[in-house]
Amino acid sequence: MTENPIAAIATTPTAARTLAPLCEHLDGTLWLPEKLNDVANGQVYTGSLKAHLESLWATQKALIFGLATGAVVRLIAPLLRDKATDPAVLVIDPEGKFVVSLCGGHQGGGDRLTQEIAAFLNATPIITGASHGLDLPGIDVLGVPFGWRKGKGDWTAIASAIAHSQPVQVMQEAGSTLWQDHLPASHSFVFDRKDTHLPRVYITPKQYPPDPVPQVYWHPRVLWVGMGCERGTSFELIEQALKTVFEQYGLSLDAIAGIATIDLKADEVGFLRLCDRYDFPLKTFAAEVLRSHSVPNPSTVVSQEVGTPSVAEAAALQGAQRETLLVSKQIFKGEGAVTIAIAQAETEYSDRPGQLYLIGTGPGSLDQMTPAAQKAVTGADVVIGYGLYIELLRSLLRPGQIVESLPITQERQRALRAIELAFQGLTVAVVSSGDCGIYGMGGLVLEELQKIGWDGKTPAVQVFPGVSAVQAAASRIGAPLMHDFCTISLSDLLTPWEVIEKRLQAAAAADFVVALYNPRSQKRIEQIAIAQRLFLEVRSPDTPVAIVRSAYRPDEQIQLTTLAEMLRYPIDMLSLVLIGNQSTCHYQDWLITPRGYNSFKS
Ligand code: SAH
């Protein structure tokens, strides 16, 4: 079973036919009543739908109904418990024109799934959550991308205040502020003003005393707890000591990044149990590393025993990469003895493995972008790309998503930024037009990863291919590629011109069909003329040529011409120039290169 199982249910043939390809796309299970067994590929349930649904409810991440909304509401009503645990529920009309996010929109991921499905079915997504309408991130999922832990609070009251555009104070004392940079102008958050009567969102390692004003807590994991102990100290004592210190200093256990200690304690049972229980990482350091820190409470006894005058304090500092402590050493004795010190890191720890999606968006219209790539854009925490491509993707974006558009010239900066964010645990989509691996961002990102000694695994990289300009242009004029072809970019920004010229000569001589990318810019106007001259040396002046500008975009232009005449037509950076081989021919408005060359002239 997949990690996030999805089940769809259809009770009519039309709905079954709509949901079957969708289930394939989502890797979900389509459930059908016996009478629809032959209509679509799915699993058959016997007995009543009500009973079947009860068995699906607890195990599925999302349920998609091809049923009337009213029927769905009646079916799920007795099963709804709590939005933190209920599956997402979606409804699709039989023809697949509308996708409704019925419940579990935020925490259940229903809104996101609705968008993804709508993109796949070319349907209208219906998302009625207030924060979605306001283009705001859901407050109950705000910290998820950053690995923050959700603390206490009156989540319903705060969500309702936000939904009503009432001012809500944000007290952010730790963690990434990236989310703040991407709020719509109309948001009603008030930052860093101590206005006692406003509902409040705390983003902090602390836990403040109760207050009559509604409030919620997100805890960025910034606290490194340095610990030392006598061998065999009981888990109970360690846990109690930890709770006591945190209580005393007004800190939340949810803000713990991890436990830090000396490497001799890597197998200390009490520490291991604590880390297991609370899902903390255990970081251990060698004595010489710990020795390098100057601490408030060094001990000569400890130094003689383990080779460093401090374990707890030095380990906290080392874990947090800081020079001062938040809480200096506290000692607890009972069944053994444990020391605890705390330091606060500048950036939060995230247990989410970062991911980089390298995405090709196709030539211009969303229709030409693969469903897998669309899904990846919707699913990412961050989308990075050139402004124009981001605009193209607008309908796939989710409220609260961090979208960074950088000018077209700053491609390397874009790659570095994506890597930086992925190392923080975020899922980052880097978008390129066409295919990201063809004169796109894909290579740049991988090159930069290689430079910093990436292990090939973290962050995980996934490449989503796209329809490249060469295929897009070719499809508009028939089948000009068909046989052996090559692409050559005339841009000498990253490649020396001599190399480009050599390739042009070789491709011309080898009778490849050739697609020229980046044929001419405002400054670079000579290259296309040189390319033409080199081809004319070996190919007939009548060789068919197509100039396709902005394929699949509203301003698309197509010009069929010949090698001799091609420079008479406008060619710019939005154009692709396709030069046929010896066998390519014009036919009506089409360009055809035969599959085989029986009459090949050598
Ligand atoms: N990664 C892209 C190519 C980027 S290089 C891809 O795979 O398509 C940019 C060049 O691609 C442009 O100068 C132009 O030559 C070509 N190009 C990109 N999109 C195009 C389109 N829609 N129509 C025609 N040419 C296009």
Structural write-up:
The chain folds into 5 domains: 6-128, Rossmann fold (3-Layer(aba) Sandwich), CATH 3.40.50; 144-219, no CATH class; 223-344, Nucleotidyltransferase, domain 5 (2-Layer Sandwich), CATH 3.30.420.180; 355-467, 3-Layer(aba) Sandwich (Cobalt-precorrin-4 Transmethylase, domain 1); 470-592, Tetrapyrrole methylase, C-terminal domain (Methyltransferase, Cobalt-precorrin-4 Transmethylase, Domain 2). The longest helix is centred in the N-terminal third of the chain and has 14 residues, at 13-26. Helix 4 (110-121) runs antiparallel to helix 13 and helix 8 packs across helix 9. The chain is α/β, with parallel strands linked by helices and 602 residues long. Helix 4 links the parallel strand 6 and strand 7. The strands form 6 sheets. Strands 3-2-1-4-5-6-7 form a 7-stranded mixed β-sheet, with helices on both faces. A 5-stranded mixed β-sheet has the order 8-12-11-9-10. A 5-stranded mixed β-sheet has the order 15-14-13-17-16. Bound molecules: S-adenosyl-L-homocysteine. S-adenosyl-L-homocysteine binds at residues 363-364, 432-435, 438-440, 468-469, 472-473, 517-519, 548-553, 573-576.
How many domains? The number is 5
Helix content: 25-40%
Order of strands in the sheet with the most strands? 3-2-1-4-5-6-7
Give the biggest beta sheet: 7 strands, mixed
CATH architecture of the largest domain: 3-Layer(aba) Sandwich
Uncertain residue ranges: none
Radius of gyration: 30 Å
Average pLDDT: 93
Total E-strand runs: 30
Q: What characteristic shape results from the CA principal axes?
A: globular
What structural category do the secondary elements indicate?
alpha/beta
Distance between the termini: 58 Å
Estimated share of beta-strand residues: 25-35%
Bound molecules: S-adenosyl-L-homocysteine
